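Hi Y.,

Following your request, here is the sequence exactly as I used it, all 323 residues.
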Amino acid sequence: MPEMPDLTVYLEHLEARLAGATLERVRLKSPFVLRSVTPSVDEVSGLRVQGVSRLAKQIVLEFEGDCFMVMHLMISGRLQWRAEALSLPQNGAPPESKAQPGRGGAASNGPKRGVRKPGRNVLALFDFSTGTLVFTEASKKKRAALRLVRGRAALAALDPGGLEVLQADLDAFANRLRNANHTLKRALTDQRVLAGIGNAYSDEILLTAGMSPFKRAGALSDEEAERLFNACRSVLTEWTERLRREAGDKFPAKVTAFHKEMAVHGKYRQPCPLCGSPVQRIVYAENEANYCARCQTDGRLLADRSLSRLLKDNWPRRLEDLE
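Below is the corresponding structure, written out as tokens. Let me know if you'd prefer a different format.
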């Protein structure tokens, strides 16, 4: 799932392309992506973009008339930008919204820069006066969501309430974590506690801080809270700058949770860059935690619930047991 660094770079490129642009048409290829009914896609067509922002892990486009378009990419959702118009097939094409007369109706057919067909994973297309924004999702589970809301109160209702780490001070950060009845891994990724951090960067943060993902957030000492706070800020800032450099002037095309430069996330059994020990993994539900036993848990192997139940007494307790 795209997290704060990825979303920040998305926002910067959207701002550069959409500032002052007019939304000429919304084309829904998957009717299930739209999770709201008011305002309708017809009502936002023809409106001018007034701002771009992030709400936890959601991307928000603000339009005149106090209207907002909120996109939650979830795990497999991504955005693409096309300077040329994209055409949907005529047979079986879903209904399209058209700009209202007098509000961009003359440009309702989208940008006139050549036409090409979108890919099979396209959920929706947004034709702006400057180009076409394409909303895709690779997964068949269709979790990505688009919501249209009117008014800041309605927008605020979509905010899970997590603290923005890069805008907070140490005391606010420590209080949020200590009041959360979670492990550190869960607290870092809970959007009601902290905003914008997910599975990938939480692994990197915890390695940088040298802390176990299963340590209870409420038990943090002052020194540990400060260490984790600094790790959050350094990892998120470093990766934002890295992704910004990789994208350059081009719209981000390869947004992924797995990067070869990452230290532990997605690096199961590969050597930890800090100590050389093999990276360990805990799989739970649809998520996983990657960690270094030597750097984060004093050599103890954290129990994978399913495997430890299966192996029982044969489950290795320490890193040395794997050798």
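The CA atoms of residues 166 and 233 lie 6 Å apart.

Thanks again,
Q.
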